[in-house]
Amino acid sequence: MEIFNMILMGFLVVCAISVSFSKNLLNSILIFMSYSLIMSIIWILLESPDLAITEAAVGAGVTSVLFFVTLKKIHAMQQETEEEDGNEPYQKTK
Amino acid sequence: MSRIRKQSEYEKTFAYRFFRWMGGEKDAFVGNMEMRPQKEYVEEEATIEERMRDRRQAMEEVYDSGHNRELRFFNWLYRCFSIIFCIAIVAMLVLTVSYLPSVGGEDKPTNNQVSETYITDGLKDTGAVNIVTGMILSYRAFDTFGETNVLFIATCCVMIMLMVDEDKIRENKDSNDRMFEPKNDVILQVVAKLLVPMVFLFGIYIILNGHLSPGGGFSGGAMIGAGMILYVAAFGFDRMEKFFNEKVYKCVKVTALICYGCIVTYYFLTGANGLACLIPLGVPGRILSGGITLPINIFVGSEVACTMYAFYALFRRGGL
After folding, report:
1. Buried residues in B98-121 as b, exposed as e (16+ CB within 10 A)
2. Rounded to two decimals, what is the model's pTM?
3. Which candidate among A54, B70, B128, B175 keeps its CA 20 to 30 Å from the CA of B283?
4. How far apart (Å, rounded) are the C-alpha atoms in residues B299 and B224?
């Protein structure tokens, strides 16, 4: 169990560092999401399941969805399906 | 017997003017102030040339770090100061950590009688088996009330910034970016159909069982909000509006906050004055027990669920 804990902690550090070095905004949100998931597992190991539930619902779920919506609003996400619908594709910023 | 006044008579009253002013039909400045149409601004040739020259100079010379010595100096200074600031902040934080009491020490501030009282008397005072929920919802109900207010005010602020008028949504479809999505995604819809009821049920279970098992109003509410977001993402706002629209949102949110406030006020007033509280504590371990914990859990849960969904809806299309 100790080793498992250590591995999770290592993942946390790797995630936290790679978020700030990732050039793609979408990638950094996904890494942030995985950070929250690992954090919720750690909360369970620390015997606080209520925090784990909240972390999984808010950190991994709602916050990331809000980030995705914001990325979409500022047109930073690639749009591939537009042309099929007949709408004008957004300008790609990156 | 009431009589209907004539229109000309009614127009002189204060109420008529007030309601017109409220409705935005009357402009107070029309007739009282001289108004002229705005003149077109014509720029002279010389000023245009001067501006162009300034701009060219700015583009070519100011940011040319090879020749501009001041810029180079500034960059050097900027780097130096950023390093110094970083080191200073790190040093301050490390210094603060060194002043913290050691883990598990006897004179640690958390090792006082407050936490001991919570643990020993918690079940007797609050009737909640889950000490954490019992603590934050009855000993510290006032704190949690403030947090719930924060949620309420946060959604109000997001509404002020992002809310669009209903007719403007119809006019300007650009604000509703759901229009640009592939609608009726089969995979997403099937998954949502399977998952959403379970998510809702689990959230309700966590809220209702908050005083018995881990969880409580905030976790359960966040889960229900996430379920609502999943439902909207799969089926669209039209399906969602059948059971959760702006009217329901307003009712639920305001009712939850008011009921919470009333319950907490009653509980604290009776507790502070030594009066008998009419809310029974019940038998520990049953669903209908825990005194004020259960109703407050429900109100906090509905508040949080509404907040989560409102954030998503306001971000998505500027309306609920």
Report:
1. eeeeeeeeeeeeeeeeeeeebeee
2. 0.72
3. A54
4. 13
